[in-house]
Amino acid sequence: MKIQQEVHNLLTGLGVSPGTFTGGQLAVTSPITGEIIANVRVTETPEKNIAAAHKAFLEWRSVPAPRRGELVRQLGDELRIERETLGRLVTFETGKILSEGVGEVQEMIDICTFAAGLSRQLTGLTLPSERPNHRMMETWHPLGVTGVISAFNFPVAVWSWNAALALVCGNSVVWKPSEKTPLTALATQAIFERAAAKVGGIPANLSTLLVGDAAVGQALVESSQVPLLSATGSTAMGRAVGPRLAQRFARAILELGGNNAAIVCPSADLDLTLRAVAFAAMGTAGQRCTTLRRLIVQESICDAFVSRLRKVFATVTVGDPREPNTLVGPLIDRRAFEAMQKTLETARSAGAVIHGGERVEISNWPDAFYVRPALVEMAEQSEIVRRETFAPILYVLRYKELNEAIVLHNDVPQGLSSSIFTTDIREAERFLSVAGSDCGIANVNIGTSGAEIGGAFGGEKETGGGRESGSDAWKQYMRRATNTINYGSDLPLAQGVVFDID
């Protein structure tokens, strides 16, 4: 069966109307073969979609939070039913291997479970008052329309991190997916509508899509009816979006660049480290914001460890992500491939020793871009190392003392994810301390890729500073009110102020 027909079958099976992905202006290409698999209709009036979502919010905000949680619970159940199908669609549209595609949908299920429980725990505080017969407390209220702009590499999981929390918090959601991956968004919207129908009484347009390029997403940035925008993408995108949101005093959750590093200490379990580094560097063909891009290895073990790593990089199976033995699928498109090659050439000019990085030709698929992951040995952390390239390139640097490694680790503009491999508790605790990693995520003896739903996800510095998913990230989707109740007959003023009138 041709890949286009299989994709169309998946879409219709998931409940997507053929009219939305045939005959439209936006051509969608599968990175597996490089061929066009759909032509999606572009949203022509995004402002109307936002206005409809605002109307839905005005109704939804008054629905009790546990009832809102029931919708998210039902969404999770529908995703369980469609886990394999939607996961396969993720693979077709992004080029991820099948286990990663299905794993992304599992992540959606997990955040729905988390958010459904959260719907009964949107707690405020009761605070002591300095005045007699007074009580202070804080309450949390729905904020408004939550805008979500997602990137191609996690086409559905990032939406779910935001949408599940936003919905239980009483908000509506308007989603602008990457123009490279709108099909999985159409499928997710169809699944959401199925869940809403089963629950019943859900406002129309509680979740809605904006399909198109950056100009369509601009409506979310500019609209006064969108008090919160969560945007995932490059640091350059964040620099463009952030000031515009700030100008109208909107909230921003920005998940931007990552230039993640791992430190390998002499005491590390090197078998464990090898597997962790391989997945962190090569998973999703190096196209994760949490991909491991810098490996800082203690000089006494560097040669032996890098020798083992070179063999893994040279022998890992690169190819069709639908095949069960494939571990590295294609880059998203030609532009990604050319950026990778340009970066490698710059590194080579700076004296780097490069292993791999070449294109892997797949017969009959001349428009697909498969590459051998690149292991790049560098003498120093030059400017090219400090700049993130969204491709499977792992730079190797050496260090003598741990303090030197931590300085190298932190000496990049980005601050998303990090890890250290050690069995020395002093080294581990130093890395996690205030004098250690400056990233939003700091791990010990696991890679930089992957974060469990229970923890807040996000980074510092040029990564943007936002947080999504677990912990208390829900507070970003609500507004806080501090309340003081006087249940006495007197009116004492705070701070001992006296203001008597006749």
Topology record:
Layout: H1 3-13, E1 26-29, E2 36-40, H2 46-60, H3 65-81, H4 83-94, H5 98-118, E3 126-127, E4 134-142, E5 145-149, H6 157-168, E6 172-176, H7 182-199, E7 207-209, H8 214-222, E8 228-232, H9 235-247, E9 251-255, E10 260-264, H10 270-282, E11 292-298, H11 299-315, H12 334-349, E12 353-355, E13 359-360, E14 370-371, E15 374-377, H13 383-386, E16 393-399, H14 402-410, E17 414-415, E18 417-421, H15 425-432, E19 441-444, E20 456-457, E21 460-461, E22 468-469, E23 478-486
Helix pairs in contact: 1-4, 3-5, 3-7, 4-5, 4-7, 5-6, 10-11
Pfam families: Aldedh
Enzyme class: oxidoreductase
Organism: Edaphobacter modestus
Overview of the molecule:
With 502 residues, this protein is an alpha/beta fold. It folds into 2 domains: 45-256, Aldehyde Dehydrogenase, Chain A, domain 1 (3-Layer(aba) Sandwich); 260-454, Aldehyde Dehydrogenase, Chain A, domain 2. Helix content is 39%, strand content 20%. It is built from 15 helices and 23 strands. The protein has helices at 3-13, 46-60, 65-81, 83-94, 98-118, 157-168, 182-199, 214-222, 235-247, 270-282, 299-315, 334-349, 383-386, 402-410, 425-432, and strands spanning 26-29, 36-40, 126-127, 134-142, 145-149, 172-176, 207-209, 228-232, 251-255, 260-264, 292-298, 353-355, 359-360, 370-371, 374-377, 393-399, 414-415, 417-421, 441-444, 456-457, 460-461, 468-469, 478-486. The strands form 7 sheets. It has a 7-stranded mixed β-sheet, with helices on both faces. It has a 5-stranded parallel β-sheet with strand order 7-6-5-8-9, sandwiched between helices. It has a 3-stranded antiparallel β-sheet with strand order 3-4-23, with no helix packed on it. Helix 10 crosses helix 11. The protein is globular and about 85 Å long. The model has no long low-confidence stretch (mean pLDDT 97).
